[in-house]
């Protein structure tokens, strides 16, 4: 039921076996045990899964030397978590961007591009999802479907043979999504001068506070750099005066502490004042789908 299944065909074509861990939950020791036992070479993981493996603290107990590629996608991967994973497992990561409506690959950020060093341009590109793939066209457009200049926010639209024909039995939804020959992804982002695609957020997740557009991912990237933060999700909550206010839902690392003032001050040092959270709530865990995506509608 997930686009990651597309990647299995390439391995079958090469005669590779597939190892399916016999566990209902994503349990790092069992995953590492399977890698060691079957000499696993490649994996596809959601960013949440990568983060769980990175922070498990048990990877050194297993021989993972066979593992040479981890594809990840299906949701945002914060730069802080991405680089922690590279430090932990090495330069074996490749980011994929696709959708059910355009499986499997719209854009990709290759292994070598995860090694930025001290190059400021390469460091900036770590926040991107890479460049469009062969046979795919990516544009960023305004509300009138006009191309916007590099660095300008807009909706990401996609063209190419991978784009779906339409939603089964949903003609109105199809007409809304497939407009002027382009798939409108519902993702907001921008392209840089070299064609690297940066996904800011889902269009529907954007917070409008006092007439200003605030993208949750920008805040989440900052908050997850706080040493006490394990996971975070930023949402908009109703407010009579401003329309919406920013709220951060934070899961702390075991044994570490932080309060609302700490998180807000951490944001203030890196963000414009109007973007920082008005409130912070600390919770035991974030609700997620079976694929590891955070369910913001439940929050």
Can you tell me about this structure?
The protein has 299 residues and is an alpha+beta fold. Helices cover 22% and strands 29% of the residues. It has a five-stranded mixed sheet. Strands 6, 7, 8, 9 and 10 form a five-stranded antiparallel sheet that branches. Helix 3 packs across helix 4 (79-89). It is globular and about 60 Å long. The chain starts with 6 loop residues before the first helix and ends in a 17-residue tail after the last strand.
Assembly state of the chains shown: single chain
| Largest sheet geometry | 5 strands, mixed
Beta-strand residue fraction: 25-35%
* Uncertain residue ranges: none
Which structural class best describes the helix and strand composition?
Answer: alpha+beta
Task: Please write the string of helix (H) and strand (E) elements.
Answer: HHEHEHEEHEEEHEEEEEHEEHE
Shape: globular
| Average pLDDT taken over every residue | 92
End-to-end distance: 24 Å
Question: Brief overview, please?
Answer:
This protein is of the alpha+beta class and 299 residues long. Helices cover 22% and strands 29% of the residues. It has helices spanning 7-13, 28-38, 47-54, 79-89, 120-125, 171-177, 216-223, 260-268, and strands at 42-45, 69-72, 93-99, 102-109, 131-132, 136-141, 154-160, 178-179, 182-191, 197-202, 207-209, 212-214, 229-239, 243-252, 279-282.
Protein topology:
Elements: H1 7-13, H2 28-38, E1 42-45, H3 47-54, E2 69-72, H4 79-89, E3 93-99, E4 102-109, H5 120-125, E5 131-132, E6 136-141, E7 154-160, H6 171-177, E8 178-179, E9 182-191, E10 197-202, E11 207-209, E12 212-214, H7 216-223, E13 229-239, E14 243-252, H8 260-268, E15 279-282
Parallel strand pairs: 1-2, 2-3, 14-15
Antiparallel strand pairs: 3-4, 4-5, 6-7, 7-9, 8-9, 9-10, 11-12, 13-14
Helix pairs in contact: 3-4
